[in-house]
Each structure stands twice: as C-alpha cells, then as structure tokens.
Amino acid sequence: MKFLEQPPRFLFFTGKGGVGKTSIACAASISLAAQGKRVLLVSTDPASNVGQVFGLRIGNQITAVSDVPNLSALEIDPQAAAQVYRDRIVGPVRGVLPETIVKSIEEQLSGACTTEIAAFDEFTGLLTDGVLVHDFDHIVFDTAPTGHTIRMLQLPGAWSGFLEDGKGDASCLGPLAGLEKQRTQYKAAVDALADPLKTRVVLVARAQAAALKEAARTQAELSGIGLSRQFLVINGVFPASETAHDPLAEAIQAREQSVLARLPESLRALPADQIALKAFNLVGLAALQQLLLQAETAAPREFSESFETPAINAPGLASLVDEIAMEGHGLVMLMGKGGVGKTTLAAAVAVKLATLGLEVHLTTSDPAAHLMDTLHGSLEHLTVSRIDPQEVTEKYRSQVLATKGAKLDVAGHAVLEEDLRSPCTEEIAVFQAFSRIIREAGKKFVVMDTAPTGHTLLLLDATGAYHRDVVRQMGSQGHFTTPMMQLQDPNKTKVLIVTLAETTPVLEAANLQSDLRRAGIEPWAWVINNSVAAATVSAPLLKQRAHNELREIEAVSRQHASRFALVPLLQEEPIGVQRLQQMSEKGV
C-alpha cells in the first residue's frame, strides 16, 4: 500500500463519514506495529468506535491493545475532556465568587464551543508532547467526519491568531478562559501539521461521486492550510470477479467504475490505493489483519455458494412516511453515523410527503451535505434549504455590528469585530438558524438531514444550553417554548435513526439513541438503509454480506426500535425526484 510506504511520525485518516476511516486506520496501525514500530492509534471523532472495532474498552487514556504487541490506543472523549476543562476553570473560583456568578460561568462553559475547544486541547497536546513523541514511532489519527476534521485542523491557526492579538469578549468569555497559557502549544501544533516530513494525510473515500467530491474538497482545503503531503485510498471497491450472473452486482461494479473513470483532477495527482470490498465484517483482529491484503477473497467463505438468504418480511419506508403524514405537520429529523444515507432518505421522505400534497421544507445542518445533487430537480409543495455555517455566521456578525456595534466608539467597535472573528461565533449563528427553521414545523413539515452523529450531538448540546439558560432566567414565570422542548415533544418532533445492517453502524445508532434519551428525546423509528438482505442477489460476496446482515436486522427489530423500516440496496442510485419517490414507495 502506497500510503504506508516510508510513513512519517503522524498519519491522519480523514474523509466523508462512513467510508471506512476507522477500519483502515486500525489496519494500518496493526501493520506498522507488526513491523516492530511503536504505534499510538488516536481517535478524535466525537462518535469514536475504535474500541468496538478491537473488541475492548479504550476510553480517554492510552491503553495497550493486548493482542497486538507495540500497539496502544486512545479515544479522545469530547464530553470527558470538556468536563476536565470546565473543572480547571471553575474550580479556583468555586467558594470564592458568589454562587450565582459560578453558575453563570458554568452555563457559559456548557455549550458545544467548550466541548470542541477541550477536545482540541488534547489533540494539540498529542502533536507536541515530547514524552509521547519519544515513546512512539508513529501516532495514527482516526479523525472525525470531514467537516469536523477541517474545523479541528483549522483551529490551531485560528486560535493562535486570535490569542496573538490578546482579544476576545462576550460570546466566548467562558470557553476562552483556559486558552491563553496554551499559546506555545498551539504554535508547535501548527508547525507539526504543516511539516510534510512529520505529517501525512490519507484521504479515504468510496467509489461514489459524493464521497470523491468530498475528498476533492478536503484535498483543496487541507492544502490551503499547509497540509500538502496527501495520499488517496478508495475503499470498498466491488471486485469484478463477483459480478457474474447477478444484475445488482453488475450494476454496482459498473457504477463504481464509471465514477472512478471521472476521478477529479486534483485527486488523480495523488498517490492512490484501492481496497476491495470484503465479504466479512471489519470487526476483530483477524478481519483487520486481512483488510489491506490485495487478494479480493482474503477470507474464506462462511457457506457454500448455494446458500440462500431467508426471505425477510419487514416494512418499507412508505409505511413510516404514511404514518408521519397523518399528523399534517411537524419536525422530522434523520440522524445517524456518517455515510449511512441520511441525505438520500431525508430527500425520499420529503418527496413522498410533498407528493401527498403536504407543504414540506427540506433542510440540512450538515456542512458536507449534497441535498441538491440528490434531488436533481424540483417538486411542487417542496422547498429546500441548507444551513451554511459560513453564510449564517457572516449574517450574524453583520447583525451584531449593526445593532450592538452602532452604540460603540471606534475602539469598542474594533474589539467587537475581533470578538466576532472568534471560532465560537459560528456555534451561536448556526444555532439561531436551526431555531428559526424548526419553528416552521408548527404549520408544515420540516424534514432535516442532520450532520454525522458527533456534530449533531454538539448542535443539540448548544440547543440544550440555551434551554437551560431560559429556564434558569424565567423559572416558573411566564410561558415559553425552547427548541429543546420542541425536540423532546413526540407530538411535534419525530427522530428517525438511520443505520446500515452492519455491526459498527448499529452499535453507533444504539449509542446515539442512548444519548438522545439522556437529553429527553425519544427516537420515533429506525431505518435500515442499503440492505443487501432485502435485495435479490446471487453473487457469492453479496450473499455472504446478506447473511451477515440478518443478525443486525434482528437486533434492530427486537432490541432497539419500537418501529423500523428496511430499505433495499438498489441497482440505480436514488438520484432525482422520480427515483426518490420510487424509493419511498418500494416495499420489501
């Protein structure tokens, strides 16, 4: 594999959610450790599943992987990091300042901005810790989905510049309180990231147009912030040897080859590897050791080619949408691990509701969304929008400068402008846009395609912080409805958890459900997308993957979901209004 030839100390695996970053990062770490290199595998993903892949509990401390000599792992837990960060700031003033002021400081530190800064603190520490650099030959980063990763990699420069001017005010007063003393660490992190002799970025994608478009965008943005040493890995490529006499397999393989033939020019220039789609689940040491093998049939068949997958009797997406439509209006949120098809399913749900004559607003809070590419057209009763972080942040800045800034002198205006350039401003702006859109759900359907799980939970955390602040200020006085209250009301909001019939996505979806329940939000239904078991297949590889799905489908139906739908893997990509409508009507 080219991306493992003469590797530098730091390797980053990044890309669109669901392309296999974690599996490849784990397999690469195992490969390096097998060469006698001392390796630390680090996950910076808020929705990390490195521990699940290895079948052990890792957590927020360096843990030796007992079955792999020379390999240790660490999962940066954003919530745990944020709590340590808060304690570091609030601890010295507790018992010194009045309790009301302490509570106010804690409230400032309860939002997503603090969570991101705290995780970033640990991230930069790994790049600059002299002891770690000495103890390990390589540090391999399994990063969060692309939008979050870009944000994290930009932060060293952003915070260094922000601190250099020594400014910052209201919107980030709490979160910024612990940053000043880290100035040297951030400068060293920027230098390490920009040094091609120390850092290599591996862009992971699938042979899909959206994933490769995202990889090209990532390539350009990373190059723009100085990370020029990049490699490309295209994962899960369907083997030509598995297509005989199977129309679905032939369609998948042809579709992928067509996409690869149109690879963006910026990606063609990168050293590239392809990894064949495997029939087995990528969980456990044995599977990970075989992932990077070049042979297409790296694992033995679990059964003969004459094996037939049992017929599955499960409801289709149409049954869920028909039940949703009976309400006449409301908020429908699709959540789940990146790469499970939330954008496509959100579009299918919205199209189905619109064809029933209901007014629908389809929107996304995902920085890497491709809604318009999926719809590829328009439809009566359907409006489409996207919460663009840069756009809404600029509008927010302009609004604050025009109101609060109008009353300030030149010096005060300059300080306010500097404050509004802080990374925390985006959180406030996106939250405001999110709140405005969900209010429409009182009159029409609002279907929201959310960002990958970690980013979504950070957004909901900001919503929760606002809710707590309103409750604290108003107490029992007056009547009010906050966005969190709307999300918690099953009569107003229906959350659909989207997953694939694979071990890691189902575990991730179950963890998301637990997190939502802790926030007082009860998921309404689960949708298992792109199911091979729900399709008609004859290729041995697809039959084995269909067989592997059965256990996960049963787990969803019996353990996790009060109601669920199964959407089969289709021969043609569900792009365009007509195919999306067919997708929402197709049963199993």
Main attributes of the structure:
seven-stranded parallel sheet; Rossmann fold; globular; 2 domains; alpha/beta; 588 residues
Describe this structure in words.
It is a single chain. This protein has about 600 residues and is an alpha/beta fold. The chain has 2 domains: about 1-290, 3-Layer(aba) Sandwich (Rossmann fold); about 315-390 and about 435-585, P-loop containing nucleotide triphosphate hydrolases (Rossmann fold, 3-Layer(aba) Sandwich), CATH 3.40.50. The chain is about 50% helix and about 15% strand. It is built from 24 helices and 15 strands. It has helices spanning about 20-35, 50-55, 80-90, 100-110, 110-130, 130-135, 145-165, 175, 185-195, 210-225, 245-260, 265-270, 285-290, 315-325, 340-355, 370-375, 390-405, 410-420, 425-440, 455-475, 485-490, 505-520, 540-560, 575-585; strands spanning about 10-15, 40-45, 65, 70-75, 140, 200-205, 230-235, 270-275, 330-335, 360-365, 380-385, 445-450, 495-500, 525-530, 565-570. The strands form 2 sheets. The chain has an 8-stranded mixed beta sheet with strand order 3-4-2-5-1-6-7-8, with helices on both faces. Strands 11-10-12-9-13-14-15 form a 7-stranded parallel beta sheet, with helices on both faces. The two termini are about 40 Å apart. The model is unreliable at about 165-175 and about 295-305 (pLDDT under 50).
